[in-house]
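User: I'm preparing a small set of examples for a lab meeting where we compare how different chains pack in three dimensions. I only have the primary sequence for this one, and I'd like the structure in token form so I can line it up with the others. Please keep the answer compact; I'll paste it straight into my notes.
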Amino acid sequence: MTSDSTEPSFEEALKALEEIVRKLESGEAPLDESIALYEQGHKLRALCQARLDAAQAKIEQIVLGADGAPAGTRPFDAD
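Assistant: Understood. Below is the structure token output for the 79-residue chain.
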């Protein structure tokens, strides 16, 4: 994570989350540290999910005209 008070980037948060998962799965951390790691991991997961949700909301679908050429965009709807 970054050393200042700003939130980490998506990539930094994901890397930190992967490291937490590795430590928890290895069993190398004592119980108290494992609990703290789990809490930190939960916060990082929420941050990553929020960033992914925000990115998905920005995705647009290209609309093609009758001639097959791009005619504009509309919000992406995964449903």
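A couple of notes for your slides: The mean pLDDT is 85. The CA atoms of residues 3 and 12 lie 12 Å apart.

User: Perfect, thanks.
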